[in-house]
Amino acid sequence: MAKREDADADRKLRGRAGRMRNGRGSGRAGQGAVRLWGRHAVQAALMNPERRHRKLWATREGVDSLDGELPADFPVEWAQAADLARLVARDAPHQGLVLECEPLPDLFLSDVLEGDAARPLVVLDQVTDPHNVGAIMRSAAAFGACAIVTQDRHAPPESGTLAKSASGALEILPWIRVVNLARALDEVAEAGYWRIGLDGEAESTLADALPAGPVALVLGAEGEGLRHNITQHCDALARLPIDEAMESLNVSNAAAIALYAVATR
């Protein structure tokens, strides 16, 4: 009997280790779930009433770093830092916290277009790097944008990497995914927004192109920039006045500067 119990315990241990190895490198979890890590991303997700949480893997130090206490019945599995490293992308700074949760509920463009028109809208045309999208979310939340709009395709999924780069902004900034970006820009125009596409070759600077009313900033993919069809659905194209010694800026940096310009016009 003792040998059978030892064998059962060994199988359980191997199974647990295998499940943890399967999480490495993606930030994705089980069917239909998202895995988040890092104090800011996890803290924001725990505070978001729209999130449905499945489980938290954590070190004691990680839980102590959170603002406020977890509910008494919250599902926590205590672990060592090395165990958590197997649940996240390679070399990801998990800070002793890994949260598995449901994806955020879908939102519709009309939901945000009916809000405060003084807040800018950020539209991304096939920006695929999750680090860039997360950084843009962080800047958009910091400068009071009403939402970020991307396509369903050619955009990164909700993930731990994106959430870590967003530093909590994923939980507070509405993220609208649309099938057809050009059609979405038509809807944005009908709502009264002036659509400004950022283009390094444009004649006008952003300061000259900014209107007094509602603004939608449209930014293109890393390297390729805006697609021709998307520029045709912008009211104006504008550039940031950077030194000609530099060809361009990273899209997340460009977004931050453009959002600052809108906030201080």
Automatic annotation (TrEMBL):
Compositional bias segments (type: Basic and acidic residues): 1-12
RNA 2-O ribose methyltransferase substrate binding domain span: 35-107
Keyword entries, A-Z: Methyltransferase, Transferase
Domain of life: Bacteria
SUPFAM superfamilies assigned to the protein according to its UniProt record, in alphabetical order: alpha/beta knot (SSF75217), L30e-like (SSF55315)
Disordered: annotated segments: 1-32
SMART domains: SpoU_sub_bind
Composition-biased stretches (Basic residues): 13-22
The name this protein goes by in its record: 23S rRNA (Guanosine(2251)-2'-O)-methyltransferase RlmB
Species in which this protein is naturally found: Novosphingobium album (ex Liu et al. 2023)
